[in-house]
Specification:
The protein is globular. About 30% of the residues lie in helices and about 20% in strands. It has helices at about 35-45, 65-80, 95-105, 130-140, 225-235, 250-265, 285-290, 300-310, 320-325; strands spanning about 5-10, 50-60, 85-90, 115, 150-155, 155-160, 165, 175, 185, 190-195, 215-220, 240-245, 270, 295. The chain is built from nine helices and 14 strands. The protein binds glutamic acid. Glutamic acid (GLU) binds next to loops.
C-alpha cells in the first residue's frame, strides 16, 4: 500500500461501536476512540500514515449542523495541506448518505474524500469495520481516486455520494447505488475502478452556507389528509420534501395543501417513498400547474439535503431549483 499521509476525521458510528460481547445484539455507536481504532488498523499491517482528528463520537442519527460545519472546515484544511493525499471520514451508516451528499455538493472534486462505516460493531463476531477501513485506505491512496467527488466505501464497494442510499438495516451489504451502480470494487488487496474520474478539477457546486434551514420530509400514506402539511408549515418549515407513493404521489388533499404552500413561496419537492426509480415532472401530478419540483433520482434524504442548500443559497425560482435536481 502507498505510504501517503491520510487525514482521518472520526465522527463515531458502528465502526466505533461496542457491545461488550461478540454475540450480543445490543451495542452503542461511537464508543471506541479514534486512536484505539487506528492502533488496530496499524496492527493489521496497513502502512499508510494516518493522521487522526476526532470531530465527534456519536451515532450518526445525531449528526447535524455543528458536526457538518466542523467536518467541512477540516476537509478544506486537509485539501489545502500538500502533505495530505486524501481524507477518510469514519461515520455511522444511518445518515452517511446525507453527510456524503452535503459534502459532495460543497467541496471541490480534488483530493479524494471517502466516508467509511460498518454495520457490525468492532467487538461483534464477523465485524466489518476493519475491512471497510482497510479498503478505504486503499481507495484514498490510489492515484485514480481524485476527481470523483465524495465517495462511500462499504461492503467491498465504492459508491459516489450522489448515488448512495442505505437499503438494508442490518446486512453488511447495506448500500446501493442509484441510478448509477458502484464506481469500483475494492478489497484489502485489490481495487478495480469501473471508469475514469468524471469530475477532475470541478469546483464545488455550492458555497458552504452559514446555516441550514428547517426542511421536513413528509411521508405520504393512504388516507392521509392536509393536517400534517399544515402542522409542518406551522412550525416554520422553509421547505418540504414529500416522500410520496410511487412517482411521488399523495392524496389529493395533501397535494392541494402542498400546492398552497408552494404558491406561498415554500418550495415543495416531490420524491418517492419507493427505494428505486425516478420521480419525473408532470407524470400523474401536474408540477407545472401546482408549482412543485420533482426530485428525479434523489431519494427523500438526499433531496432534503439539496433543498436545504438551495434555500440557504438564496435560490427561490422553481425552474432554477428543478435544474439542480435534474443534475444531482
Ligand atoms: N445508528 C448508528 C449510526 O448511524 C449505527 C448504525 C451504523 O453505524 O451502522 O451511527
Amino acid at each position: 500500500m502507498s505510504s501517503s499521509r491520510i487525514r482521518v476525521l472520526a465522527t463515531g458510528g458502528t465502526i466505533a461501536g461496542s457491545g461488550g460481547s461478540a454475540f450480543g445484539s445490543g451495542y452503542r455507536a461511537g464508543q471506541i476512540g479514534i486512536d484505539d481504532m487506528l492502533r488496530e488498523v496499524r496492527s493489521l499491517g496497513v502502512e499508510a500514515e494516518l493522521d487522526p482528528v476526532e470531530v465527534a463520537s456519536i451515532g450518526s442519527q445525531d449528526i447535524g449542523w455543528s458536526e457538518w460545519d466542523r467536518l467541512h472546515s477540516e476537509i478544506l484544511r486537509a485539501q489545502a495541506d500538500d502533505s495530505i493525499a486524501g481524507v477518510i471520514v469514519t461515520h455511522g451508516t444511518d445518515t452517511a448518505e446525507e453527510t456524503a451528499y452535503l459534502l459532495d455538493l460543497t467541496l471541490d472534486a480534488g483530493k479524494p474524500v471517502v466516508l467509511v462505516g460498518a454495520m457490525r460493531p468492532a467487538d461483534a463476531v464477523g465485524s466489518d469495520g476493519m475491512r471497510n477501513f482497510a479498503n478505504a485506505v486503499r481507495v484514498v491512496s490510489d492515484q485514480a481516486a481524485g476527481g470523483r467527488g465524495v465517495m462511500l466505501v462499504m461492503g467491498d464497494t465504492v459508491f459516489a455520494a450522489r448515488d448512495i442510499r442505505k437499503a438494508a438495516t442490518s446486512s453488511v451489504d447495506a448500500f446501493r447505488g442509484f441510478p448509477r451502480g458502484p464506481l469500483a470494487r475494492v478489497t484489502p488487496t485489490s481495487l478495480d475502478w469501473f471508469g475514469p474520474p468524471d469530475r477532475t478539477g470541478a469546483a464545488a457546486r455550492f458555497a458552504w452556507p452559514d446555516g441550514l434551514p428547517r426542511v421536513a420530509i413528509l411521508i405520504a400514506g393512504a388516507g392521509m389528509d392536509e393536517k400534517p402539511v399544515e402542522a409542518l408549515l406551522g412550525i416554520g418549515c422553509k421547505g418540504i420534501v414529500l416522500a410520496g407513493m410511487g412517482q411521488g404521489n399523495a392524496p389529493a388533499r395533501v397535494l392541494d395543501a402542498l400546492e398552497k404552500a408552494a404558491k406561498a413561496g415554500v418550495p415543495i419537492v416531490r420524491s418517492s417513498r419507493v427505494d428505486e426509480g425516478l420521480v419525473d415532472r408532470n407524470v400523474e401530478v401536474d408540477d407545472d400547474a401546482r408549482g412543485f419540483i420533482a426530485a428525479r433520482a434523489l431519494g427523500p434524504a438526499k433531496a432534503r439535503v439539496l433543498l436545504m442548500l438551495l434555500i440557504a443559497s438564496g435560490m427561490t425560482g422553481t425552474a432554477e431549483m428543478q435544474a439542480t435536481f435534474d443534475r444531482p
